[in-house]
Write a structure and sequence with these properties.
about 80 residues; alpha+beta; about 40% helix
Length: about 80
């Protein structure tokens, strides 16, 4: 567990993530992270965009269904 402190940045509030957390998230300065609300009211911080993940899953399903067509078009 990592304890974070809420701080004031201009007119906003924020937290500073320790170097170890940044490395574990495999992210860095200027990168986006996403705060996802879990079903039980908790939050999860992740570098992966859940909306993009859903779109990619749908794209993979379509590519699987039309694999032969896409292969022929790629020639």
């Amino acid at each position: 567990m990592v304890q974070l402190k809420i701080r004031k940045f201009g007119n906003s509030l924020g937290v500073v993530l320790p170097k170890e957390v940044i490395q574990r998230l495999r992210t860095g300065d200027g990168e986006r992270v996403f705060l996802i609300e879990a079903g039980d009211g908790d939050y999860r911080l992740t570098p992966y965009d859940p909306a993009f993940e859903k779109k990619m899953a749908k794209a993979e399903a379509i590519m699987g269904r039309y694999r032969n067509t896409l292969h022929a078009l790629a020639k």
